[in-house]
Amino acid sequence: MGGDPYAYVATVRKCFGCEEIGREQQHIPDGAAGTGMKVMLLPASVAAAIEVQNDHLV
Description:
single chain; mainly alpha
């Protein structure tokens, strides 16, 4: 039942994607206004295309 308690070693590394997600999560409003909102990483070209498309819908 018991495995080797030293089979895995924890290590710390900086994840720039996680850092960006954390920065953007601070902009999600609390309560009902933020319900269902999630931060996603997209390639910059895809994000730009979505922004252009959204600008044309207005």
